Amino acid sequence: MNNQPHIEIPTTRREFLAKSGGGFGAMALAALMGQSASAAPADPRAPKTTHFPAKAKNVIFLFMEGGPSHIDLFDPKPLLNELAGQKLPESFGKVILAMGENDAPLMRCPRKWKQHGESGLWVSDWFPEIATCADDLCVIRSCVSDGINHSSGVCQMNTGHVIGGRPSLGAWATYGLGTENQDMPAFVVLTDGKGQPVNGSRNWGSGFMPAAYQGVQFKSGADPILNLNPPSHITSKRQKSKLDFLSQLDREHAAEREDFSELEARIKSYELAFRMQSAAPDIVDLSSESEETKQLYGIDQKETNVFGNNCLLARRLVENGVRFVQLYSGAGSGWDAHSNIEGNHGKLCKEVDKPIAGLLKDLKRRGLWDETLVIWGGEFGRTPMSEKGNGRDHNPTGFTMWMAGGAVPGGRTIGATDELGLKAVENPLHVHDLHATIMRVLGVDHTKLIYRHKGRPERIDMNEGRAELKVLGLA
Length: 475
What we know:
alpha/beta, Alkaline Phosphatase, subunit A, nine-stranded mixed β-sheet, two-stranded antiparallel sheet, 12 helices, 16% strand, DUF1501 domain-containing protein, coiled coil, DUF1501
């Protein structure tokens, strides 16, 4: 008879560390990871206090994926038309372009420009509806990115880095502020149904943070939440019994693996999905909205129906406590006008102009203006030089974004590009600065919002950004 004691052999390196040395391996592992299970909050999505008093508590990010042309929309350059057909002046130095057409001639902007509102903000004729909201816009004309192509540009605008793996802006907002509605996701993503954005779900991922902070993608249309409703033969009681049993198994499994945040996030997601079956249908149902409201967003018109639906849904989501909503126009680099910019931008501007203006006006009349920050922009702008004769190349060295609502004073421009719109020359704001500024509008000090990862204190700006107080009217 074999009287030797049974020895359980660890099957993974993490399990070996957890069980070796009386648990000292787990302590070392926790130190390396920069966090411990005991430090984790009971509910990572619970509402949190801000560092500064702030009216803004929600974000709607209107992402024009592919790179909208700032010099054809919000940043007029009269000299560009004067020099059209000539080479870029030597005083600009060597310019490296994504598609390599470095010697391409300058291309004129055929847009008609007008000053709008009491502020006299310049907006081109491609955005006649948004122009009616000119006094509400804080236009930042000096944005800068490091991403020269779409993958790196979209990644940086969403996560702060040109290489994937870091938490998205929405994940940071959820981590720092939590959410006010525990029956809905804190971070929702809506696309226009034309495809998936470049890099896919990494754009709204949680990176090295717990999975509870990642975004949830909704689809456009009448049924935006995938797999929300159970099969007709599954009763609510039966479903809850199954979820309770699954939760019991998961928690028993998690009790021995306290450093696995993914498992806890999975448990929370099952619980959230069950609660959403009661709360979400009413929130995403647009049929209760008046015909006047639907017309305001352009839902009654073919060109604006899809983005109008998404903008109206975004308003209903923030109205019901969703912290961060991101809307993609041109998902899959639709704004990427290397050729035929007239046809490309003309079509896309028509699709988003009325819905965006409708969103801004609707937020105001429903008392959501000061508490909702609206952001517009893409991963970069476009060059003053032509490509293929009638298009423009990528331009990360100087482009435009704007913010509205969220107690941000409107009717202003911040920063400037050079005389041709190629480079930011006055008050350049890097993506890191934009992220820090967005968090500051929400009342969060980006230098104090820290997540420890592998012993390193990580911040949204990668320790390189500054909050631009001019956006808040504080400088």
